[in-house]
Amino acid sequence: MSEGEGGFFERIASTEAWLRTRPGLSPEQVANAVASVRRGILYNTAWTVVWISRELALYEDGPRGTDRVAKRLGRRLFGYESHEPLSFADGFSVELPLYSPSYFLAGLFGSALRRAVLAEVGGPLWPNRKVGPWLLRHWMREGTSFDWTTRLRELTGAPFDARAFLAETRPGTK
Fold first, then answer.
1. How many domains would you assign to the chain?
2. How far is Cα 78 from Cα 75, in angstroms, rounded to an integer?
3. Domain range holding 144?
């Protein structure tokens, strides 16, 4: 949940509305930056899937299984033909089995939360004086003492799934 909230605010600084207010950026640079961020979100999500798959292979097949998985997924998702992945003996590559999936879920969660805010207060997220009060009233006042998937369903009217993420990363959407 915390990663999703962090990503919520992080993404405001990559919106067209916010970037247009930055001095020295041409409309073409803004459009390129927005497209680059959208691609980056997809690449990061794909990498997280590789990360999760490598961890599962480590637990299921031992250290030899991870390279096979990483090479196959790297080829399929990123087009790498010859790629030597980092060793899974590297402490920066192995995490707790529930830690890496949290990054995947955070991306889905952040998109759903942004959808909920925009549905009620309208857009853009910035500059918008209604966003902060909405977040305090509907989300942050509860802290972490509730089931956030249930809360997200209450706010969006939809189950926690990939629909908002897919809509948000589809080219041509704002």
1. 1
2. 6
3. 2-169
174 domain-assigned: no
Question: Any idea what the CATH number is for the domain that residue 66 is in?
Answer: 1.10.1370.10
**154-162 contacts at long range (C-beta below 8 A, 24 or more positions apart):** 155/113, 155/116, 156/112, 156/115, 156/116, 156/119, 158/112, 160/108, 160/109, 160/112, 161/108, 162/108
Assess if residue 90 is contained within a domain: yes
Per-residue pLDDT of the chain (174 residues; tens, 9 = 90+): 667 667 777 788 888 888 999 999 999 999 999 999 888 888 888 888 877 777 777 667 665 666 666 677 777 777 766 656 555 544 445 555 556 777 788 888 888 888 889 999 988 888 899 998 998 888 777 665 667 778 778 878 888 888 888 888 887 765
* Nearest in space to 110 (alpha carbons), one of 2, 15, 23, 29: 2
Query: 99-121 and 27-61 are packed helices; what angle lies between their axes, rounded to 10 degrees?
Result: 140
Displacement of CA 114 from its chain's centroid (Å):
12
Residue 152 within any structural domain of the chain:
yes
Measuring CA to CA, which residue among 147, 127, 156, 155 is closest to residue 15? 127
Q: Six-digit token pair at 43?
A: 């690449």
In a domain, 104, yes or no: yes
Rounded Cα–Cα distance for residues 50 and 70 (Å): 6
